[in-house]
């Protein structure tokens, strides 16, 4: 409606719309701070009258070829030396590819890319690291701390786009790292660094240089307070790969996810350990989220969650205490509080586990965040174990989604979860009943299928009320 009104106003005044939203293309005759279509702030820019143009056909420099004659070796993967990053990217870096790595401040983006740059440079490639947030001396100090100094790694501290492109022309690197795309600006474009116009111009110029030189480029991107990548949405469409670097502030574990990947899967997850000496790949992160106790303890249950395609073992702990008030407290850490409250209601109404007079505390080990519904059964068993003060077997895992009727629903990847549990020494599993069964079960591994949460409680905790 706002678009029609602004268009009619422009028609009455005899002028074409002079302002346009950089995000959605909405036009208006006068400047406004907020787009009337997509509601984005600060994206409306003056563009003048809209003039229709046509482009004449130009002389073709290189004729189109049949796809069978195209040499695919030019786009072969180049391993970075960081196994978890190669896993997420699908095998490594592709020549000419532009990769955007986004994440919150302090999560370890610069440390990871400096480590990658040093390893690639150590393999005989020229690497240029352009930083707009730190001086070259500051980057050198961090490189020495994480042992990322290589003779063919070049540093440049620049915030001017033309100067950065000048360094690219002079060094002619095979790998370019820009930290970050929001700190560079072009003097030919109005607006401050990090603005919509500047980010669009910087990204377009760097991408054009990367494609022309067949140069792999890694861009660091900032995120807004709601977790989305700062700048125009067009930035994510222009690049070839978009990765999100995630991690809790109080945990050393970092997860790298591919949100967009033109050269590989988007359901892989890389795990890293951020320490004082740098950032290291964690090929087997399950041990970080399972406590080591000699004797069984009530109120604990091990589950297997899927992070992308990777099975990950995690431990759920629960503690119940008699409440001193008429409204018992419900506290969670690492789990969705609303889902835990739902499971407590299911346990009380569908399984006869009376919890209305107890303060309930449910948490995960190691600071891992479990959001998959497949962890429901483990949470239910941990709470019931704490209620009855009966410990579950130490080498048992449980997973499955629990519904409001108390039914245990099947979850994807049952066989993959069982194989991971068997690899780590577990011998028993409680899984949802499935028409196709649990799949191939390792020798000596016992699986119990349940269709209702009460079945699991009767099987494991005979004394449950």
From TrEMBL:
<dbReference type="GO" id="GO:0005829">
    <property type="term" value="C:cytosol"/>
</dbReference>
<dbReference type="Pfam" id="PF13541">
    <property type="entry name" value="ChlI"/>
</dbReference>
<dbReference type="InterPro" id="IPR041166">
    <property type="entry name" value="Rubredoxin_2"/>
</dbReference>
<dbReference type="InterPro" id="IPR020588">
    <property type="entry name" value="RecA_ATP-bd"/>
</dbReference>
<dbReference type="GO" id="GO:0016787">
    <property type="term" value="F:hydrolase activity"/>
</dbReference>
<dbReference type="InterPro" id="IPR004504">
    <property type="entry name" value="DNA_repair_RadA"/>
</dbReference>
<keyword id="KW-0346">Stress response</keyword>
<protein>
    <recommendedName>
        <fullName>DNA repair protein RadA</fullName>
    </recommendedName>
</protein>
<dbReference type="Pfam" id="PF13481">
    <property type="entry name" value="AAA_25"/>
</dbReference>
<dbReference type="GO" id="GO:0000725">
    <property type="term" value="P:recombinational repair"/>
</dbReference>
<dbReference type="Pfam" id="PF18073">
    <property type="entry name" value="Zn_ribbon_LapB"/>
</dbReference>
<feature type="short sequence motif" description="RadA KNRFG motif">
    <location>
        <begin position="260"/>
        <end position="264"/>
    </location>
</feature>
<comment type="function">
    <text>DNA-dependent ATPase involved in processing of recombination intermediates, plays a role in repairing DNA breaks. Stimulates the branch migration of RecA-mediated strand transfer reactions, allowing the 3' invading strand to extend heteroduplex DNA faster. Binds ssDNA in the presence of ADP but not other nucleotides, has ATPase activity that is stimulated by ssDNA and various branched DNA structures, but inhibited by SSB. Does not have RecA's homology-searching function.</text>
</comment>
<keyword id="KW-0479">Metal-binding</keyword>
<feature type="binding site">
    <location>
        <begin position="103"/>
        <end position="110"/>
    </location>
    <ligand>
        <name>ATP</name>
    </ligand>
</feature>
<keyword id="KW-0227">DNA damage</keyword>
<feature type="region of interest" description="Lon-protease-like">
    <location>
        <begin position="359"/>
        <end position="465"/>
    </location>
</feature>
<feature type="domain" description="RecA family profile 1">
    <location>
        <begin position="74"/>
        <end position="223"/>
    </location>
</feature>
<dbReference type="GO" id="GO:0003684">
    <property type="term" value="F:damaged DNA binding"/>
</dbReference>
<keyword id="KW-0547">Nucleotide-binding</keyword>
<keyword id="KW-0067">ATP-binding</keyword>
<dbReference type="GO" id="GO:0140664">
    <property type="term" value="F:ATP-dependent DNA damage sensor activity"/>
</dbReference>
<dbReference type="InterPro" id="IPR027417">
    <property type="entry name" value="P-loop_NTPase"/>
</dbReference>
<dbReference type="GO" id="GO:0008270">
    <property type="term" value="F:zinc ion binding"/>
</dbReference>
<keyword id="KW-0234">DNA repair</keyword>
<keyword id="KW-0238">DNA-binding</keyword>
<dbReference type="InterPro" id="IPR014721">
    <property type="entry name" value="Ribsml_uS5_D2-typ_fold_subgr"/>
</dbReference>
<dbReference type="GO" id="GO:0005524">
    <property type="term" value="F:ATP binding"/>
</dbReference>
<comment type="similarity">
    <text>Belongs to the RecA family. RadA subfamily.</text>
</comment>
<dbReference type="InterPro" id="IPR003593">
    <property type="entry name" value="AAA+_ATPase"/>
</dbReference>
<comment type="function">
    <text>Plays a role in repairing double-strand DNA breaks, probably involving stabilizing or processing branched DNA or blocked replication forks.</text>
</comment>
<keyword id="KW-0863">Zinc-finger</keyword>
<keyword id="KW-0378">Hydrolase</keyword>
<dbReference type="InterPro" id="IPR020568">
    <property type="entry name" value="Ribosomal_Su5_D2-typ_SF"/>
</dbReference>
<keyword id="KW-0862">Zinc</keyword>
């Amino acid at each position: 409606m706002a678009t029609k009104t602004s268009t009619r106003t422009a028609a009455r005044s005899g002028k074409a719309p002079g302002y346009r939203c950089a995000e959605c293309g909405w036009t208006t005759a006068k400047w406004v701070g907020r787009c009337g279509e997509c509601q984005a702030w600060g994206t409306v820019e003056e563009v003048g009258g809209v003039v229709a143009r046509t482009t004449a056909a130009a002389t073709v420099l290189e004729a189109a070829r049949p796809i069978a004659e195209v040499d695919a070796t030019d786009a072969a993967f180049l391993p970075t030396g960081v196994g978890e990053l190669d896993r997420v990217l699908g095998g490594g870096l592709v020549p000419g590819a532009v990769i955007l790595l986004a994440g919150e401040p302090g999560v370890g983006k610069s440390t990871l890319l400096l480590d990658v740059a040093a390893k690639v440079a150590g393999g005989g490639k020229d690497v240029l690291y352009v930083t707009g947030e730190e001086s070259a001396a500051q980057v050198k100090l961090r490189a020495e701390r994480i042992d990322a100094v290589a003779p063919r790694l070049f540093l440049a501290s620049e915030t001017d786009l033309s100067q950065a492109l000048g360094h690219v022309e002079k060094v002619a690197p095979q790998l370019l790292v820009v930290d970050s795309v929001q700190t560079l600006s072009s003097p030919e474009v109005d607006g401050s660094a990090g603005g919509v116009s500047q980010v669009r111009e910087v990204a377009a110029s760097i991408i054009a240089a990367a494609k022309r030189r067949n140069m792999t480029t890694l861009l660091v991107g900032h995120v807004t307070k709601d977790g989305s990548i700062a700048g125009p949405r067009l930035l994510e469409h222009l690049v070839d790969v978009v990765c999100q670097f995630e991690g809790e502030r109080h945990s050393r574990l970092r997860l790298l996810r591919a949100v967009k990947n033109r050269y590989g899967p988007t359901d892989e997850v890389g795990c890293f350990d951020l320490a004082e000496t740098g950032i290291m790949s964690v090929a087997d992160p399950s041990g970080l989220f399972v406590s080591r106790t000699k004797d069984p303890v009530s109120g604990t249950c091990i589950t297997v969650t899927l992070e992308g395609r990777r099975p990950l073992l995690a431990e759920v702990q629960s503690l119940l205490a008699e409440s001193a008030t008429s409204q018992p407290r419900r506290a969670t850490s690492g789990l969705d509080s609303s889902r835990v409250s739902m499971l407590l209601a299911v346990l009380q109404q569908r399984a006869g586990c009376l919890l209305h007079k107890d303060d309930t505390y449910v948490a995960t080990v190691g600071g891992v965040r479990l959001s998959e519904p497949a962890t429901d059964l483990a949470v239910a068993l941990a709470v019931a174990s704490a209620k009855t003060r009966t410990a579950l077997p130490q080498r048992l895992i449980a997973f499955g989604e629990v519904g409001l009727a108390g039914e245990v629903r099947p979850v994807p990847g049952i066989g993959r979860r069982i194989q991971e549990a068997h690899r780590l020494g577990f011998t028993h599993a409680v899984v949802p009943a499935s028409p196709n069964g649990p799949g191939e079960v390792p020798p000596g591994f016992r699986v119990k299928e349940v269709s209702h949460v009460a079945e699991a409680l009767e099987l494991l905790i005979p004394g449950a009320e």
